[in-house]
Amino acid sequence: MKSKLNQSKLKLAIVSAMLLGTAGITAPAYALDASLSVSASIDMSCSITTTALLFGDYEPGSTHATAPLNAEGGVSSTCTTGSSGNIKMGQGANTTGTSSTDAIPLRRMVAAGDADSFLNYGLFTNTDRLTAWENATGVPYTGTGLAQALVVYGSIDPGQTSAVVGSYTDTITVSINY
Protein backbone atom coordinates (compact mmCIF):
# COMPACT_ATOMS: atom_id res chain seq x y z
CA MET A 1 0.00 0.00 0.00
CA LYS A 2 2.81 2.27 0.65
CA SER A 3 3.88 2.09 -2.95
CA LYS A 4 0.37 2.95 -4.17
CA LEU A 5 0.20 5.91 -1.86
CA ASN A 6 3.51 7.21 -3.05
CA GLN A 7 2.42 6.78 -6.67
CA SER A 8 -0.73 8.74 -6.00
CA LYS A 9 1.24 11.52 -4.41
CA LEU A 10 3.68 11.45 -7.29
CA LYS A 11 0.84 11.64 -9.83
CA LEU A 12 -0.74 14.48 -7.86
CA ALA A 13 2.57 16.37 -7.79
CA ILE A 14 3.04 15.92 -11.56
CA VAL A 15 -0.49 17.06 -12.35
CA SER A 16 -0.10 20.06 -10.02
CA ALA A 17 3.19 21.04 -11.64
CA MET A 18 1.65 20.80 -15.09
CA LEU A 19 -1.30 22.92 -14.07
CA LEU A 20 0.97 25.55 -12.56
CA GLY A 21 3.21 25.52 -15.63
CA THR A 22 0.34 25.94 -18.05
CA ALA A 23 -1.23 28.61 -15.84
CA GLY A 24 1.93 30.65 -16.23
CA ILE A 25 1.81 30.24 -20.01
CA THR A 26 -1.84 31.14 -20.36
CA ALA A 27 -1.82 34.05 -17.89
CA PRO A 28 -2.03 37.34 -19.73
CA ALA A 29 1.11 39.61 -19.62
CA TYR A 30 0.63 43.36 -19.26
CA ALA A 31 3.03 46.10 -20.47
CA LEU A 32 2.68 49.85 -20.53
CA ASP A 33 4.65 52.22 -22.74
CA ALA A 34 5.63 55.79 -21.95
CA SER A 35 7.75 58.39 -23.71
CA LEU A 36 10.83 59.95 -22.17
CA SER A 37 11.61 63.43 -23.48
CA VAL A 38 15.27 64.32 -23.73
CA SER A 39 16.42 67.84 -24.54
CA ALA A 40 19.27 70.29 -24.04
CA SER A 41 20.07 73.83 -25.00
CA ILE A 42 23.32 75.67 -25.52
CA ASP A 43 23.41 79.32 -24.62
CA MET A 44 25.87 81.71 -26.16
CA SER A 45 28.70 82.35 -23.75
CA CYS A 46 32.19 83.75 -23.92
CA SER A 47 35.23 84.25 -21.76
CA ILE A 48 37.96 86.76 -22.40
CA THR A 49 41.50 87.19 -21.09
CA THR A 50 44.23 89.71 -21.84
CA THR A 51 48.01 89.77 -22.03
CA ALA A 52 49.58 93.04 -20.85
CA LEU A 53 51.04 95.45 -23.38
CA LEU A 54 54.45 96.41 -21.97
CA PHE A 55 56.22 99.19 -23.86
CA GLY A 56 59.45 99.30 -21.90
CA ASP A 57 61.67 102.42 -21.94
CA TYR A 58 60.52 105.45 -23.91
CA GLU A 59 63.33 107.88 -24.85
CA PRO A 60 61.67 111.08 -26.13
CA GLY A 61 64.92 113.04 -26.61
CA SER A 62 66.79 110.45 -28.67
CA THR A 63 65.51 107.12 -29.99
CA HIS A 64 61.86 108.15 -29.89
CA ALA A 65 62.27 111.79 -30.87
CA THR A 66 61.00 110.94 -34.37
CA ALA A 67 60.12 107.23 -34.15
CA PRO A 68 57.29 105.72 -32.11
CA LEU A 69 57.85 103.07 -29.46
CA ASN A 70 55.87 99.98 -30.48
CA ALA A 71 54.86 96.93 -28.48
CA GLU A 72 52.30 94.12 -28.58
CA GLY A 73 49.81 92.70 -26.10
CA GLY A 74 46.95 90.29 -26.58
CA VAL A 75 43.31 89.40 -26.17
CA SER A 76 42.08 85.83 -26.15
CA SER A 77 38.40 84.93 -26.38
CA THR A 78 36.67 81.59 -26.12
CA CYS A 79 33.07 81.67 -27.32
CA THR A 80 30.38 79.10 -28.02
CA THR A 81 30.49 77.70 -31.54
CA GLY A 82 28.23 79.71 -33.81
CA SER A 83 28.18 82.83 -31.63
CA SER A 84 29.41 86.09 -33.04
CA GLY A 85 29.94 89.66 -31.97
CA ASN A 86 32.65 92.25 -31.41
CA ILE A 87 35.60 92.71 -29.08
CA LYS A 88 35.87 96.34 -28.04
CA MET A 89 38.43 98.43 -26.15
CA GLY A 90 37.49 101.38 -23.99
CA GLN A 91 39.14 104.78 -24.12
CA GLY A 92 41.20 104.19 -20.99
CA ALA A 93 41.27 105.82 -17.59
CA ASN A 94 43.16 108.95 -18.70
CA THR A 95 41.43 110.16 -21.85
CA THR A 96 41.84 113.70 -23.12
CA GLY A 97 38.34 114.70 -22.08
CA THR A 98 35.68 115.64 -24.60
CA SER A 99 37.92 115.23 -27.66
CA SER A 100 38.23 111.46 -27.07
CA THR A 101 35.27 109.34 -28.22
CA ASP A 102 34.45 105.64 -28.39
CA ALA A 103 34.91 105.79 -32.18
CA ILE A 104 38.15 107.83 -32.02
CA PRO A 105 39.82 107.17 -28.66
CA LEU A 106 42.69 109.46 -27.68
CA ARG A 107 44.44 107.34 -25.10
CA ARG A 108 47.17 108.36 -22.71
CA MET A 109 49.08 106.97 -19.77
CA VAL A 110 49.55 109.02 -16.61
CA ALA A 111 52.81 109.30 -14.68
CA ALA A 112 52.96 107.70 -11.25
CA GLY A 113 52.92 110.53 -8.72
CA ASP A 114 52.29 113.29 -11.32
CA ALA A 115 48.67 113.48 -12.43
CA ASP A 116 49.56 116.24 -14.93
CA SER A 117 52.13 114.31 -16.97
CA PHE A 118 50.96 112.02 -19.77
CA LEU A 119 52.22 109.87 -22.64
CA ASN A 120 49.91 109.62 -25.65
CA TYR A 121 49.59 106.18 -27.17
CA GLY A 122 47.34 104.17 -29.45
CA LEU A 123 46.01 100.62 -29.68
CA PHE A 124 45.56 99.11 -33.12
CA THR A 125 44.18 96.02 -34.83
CA ASN A 126 46.91 95.69 -37.46
CA THR A 127 50.72 95.54 -37.63
CA ASP A 128 51.08 98.83 -39.53
CA ARG A 129 49.11 100.50 -36.72
CA LEU A 130 46.67 102.32 -38.97
CA THR A 131 43.33 100.98 -37.67
CA ALA A 132 42.55 101.99 -34.08
CA TRP A 133 41.05 99.37 -31.81
CA GLU A 134 38.10 101.30 -30.51
CA ASN A 135 34.96 100.94 -28.45
CA ALA A 136 32.30 101.81 -31.04
CA THR A 137 32.54 98.97 -33.56
CA GLY A 138 35.39 96.83 -32.25
CA VAL A 139 36.85 93.77 -33.91
CA PRO A 140 34.42 91.09 -35.14
CA TYR A 141 34.76 87.45 -34.09
CA THR A 142 32.95 84.17 -34.73
CA GLY A 143 32.98 81.62 -31.92
CA THR A 144 34.53 78.20 -32.55
CA GLY A 145 34.41 76.82 -29.02
CA LEU A 146 38.21 77.15 -28.86
CA ALA A 147 40.40 80.02 -27.67
CA GLN A 148 41.10 82.60 -30.37
CA ALA A 149 44.07 84.89 -29.82
CA LEU A 150 44.19 88.41 -31.22
CA VAL A 151 47.24 90.67 -31.13
CA VAL A 152 46.89 94.18 -29.74
CA TYR A 153 49.39 96.47 -31.48
CA GLY A 154 50.44 99.46 -29.37
CA SER A 155 52.37 102.59 -30.23
CA ILE A 156 53.58 105.56 -28.15
CA ASP A 157 53.69 108.73 -30.22
CA PRO A 158 57.24 110.04 -30.91
CA GLY A 159 58.66 113.32 -29.58
CA GLN A 160 56.72 113.68 -26.33
CA THR A 161 59.47 115.73 -24.65
CA SER A 162 57.23 117.28 -21.98
CA ALA A 163 56.74 113.95 -20.20
CA VAL A 164 58.51 113.74 -16.83
CA VAL A 165 60.77 110.94 -15.66
CA GLY A 166 58.86 108.04 -14.11
CA SER A 167 56.60 105.12 -14.90
CA TYR A 168 53.36 105.59 -16.82
CA THR A 169 50.23 103.43 -16.79
CA ASP A 170 46.70 103.24 -18.07
CA THR A 171 43.90 100.71 -17.75
CA ILE A 172 41.75 99.72 -20.71
CA THR A 173 38.43 97.93 -20.37
CA VAL A 174 38.17 95.13 -22.93
CA SER A 175 34.68 93.82 -23.58
CA ILE A 176 33.18 91.17 -25.79
CA ASN A 177 29.66 91.71 -27.07
CA TYR A 178 27.68 88.66 -28.20
**CATH architecture descriptor text:** Sandwich
The topology string of helices and strands comes to: HEEEEEEEEE
Terminal-residue CA separation: 97 Å
- Name the strands of the widest sheet in spatial order: 1-2-7-5-4-8
Q: In DSSP terms, counting alpha (H) and pi (I) runs of 4 or more, how many helices?
A: 1
The CATH superfamily title? Fimbrial-type adhesion domain
Mean pLDDT: 90
Q: Which residues sit in consecutive blocks of at least 5 with pLDDT less than 50?
A: none
Count of distinct strands? 9
Beta content comes to: 25-35%
Structure summarized in a few sentences:
The protein is of the alpha+beta class and 178 residues long. Helices cover 14% and strands 33% of the residues.
How would you explain this protein's 3D organization?
14% of the residues lie in helices and 33% in strands. The N and C termini lie far apart (97 Å). It is of the alpha+beta class. It has one helix at residues 2-26, and strands spanning 46-51, 69-79, 84-89, 107-111, 114-124, 139-142, 147-156, 168-169, 174-177. It has a single domain, classed as Immunoglobulin-like, CATH 2.60.40.
List keywords for this structure.
178 residues; alpha+beta; Immunoglobulin-like; six-stranded antiparallel sheet; three-stranded antiparallel sheet; 33% strand
List the helices and strands and how they pair.
Layout: H1 2-26, E1 46-51, E2 69-79, E3 84-89, E4 107-111, E5 114-124, E6 139-142, E7 147-156, E8 168-169, E9 174-177
Antiparallel strand pairs: 1-2, 2-7, 3-6, 3-9, 4-5, 4-8, 5-7
